[in-house]
Specification:
Elements lengths: L2 H19 L4 H26 L7 H27 L13
Pfam family, one: Oxidored_q2
Organism: Pictichromis paccagnellae
Subcellular location: Mitochondrion inner membrane; Mitochondrion membrane
């Protein structure tokens, strides 16, 4: 396995592990999701470079733009949650009461 592919796989698995085991705060969950999205961006960039095809070169940029939109939506939900509940701890949030 190439070092770049190993780094991509390790970054994705590290983000997935952090999301699965470290879910005390909403901000940490969002950061793990953002790390996973950035590792997928790196994977798509490596795939486009590996194919040497110009039609796939815009795909990583579109994915990065969608990832930025998702991150801004997640941060706006974080701000709304903190204003409504006073904390971002996931244990104190009840979706039935929102």
């Amino acid at each position: 396995m190439a070092p770049a592919h190993f780094a991509f796989s390790a970054a994705f698995m590290l983000g997935l592990t952090g999301l699965a085991f470290h879910r005390t705060h909403l901000l940490s969950a969002l950061l793990c999701l953002e790390g996973m999205m950035l590792s997928l961006y790196i994977g798509l960039s490596l795939w486009a470079l590996h194919l040497d095809n110009n039609s796939f070169s815009t795909l990583p940029m579109v994915f990065l733009a969608l990832s930025a939109c998702g991150a801004s939506a997640g941060l706006s939900l974080l701000v709304a949650t903190v204003r409504a509940h006073g904390t971002d701890q996931l244990q104190n949030l009840n979706l039935l009461q929102c």
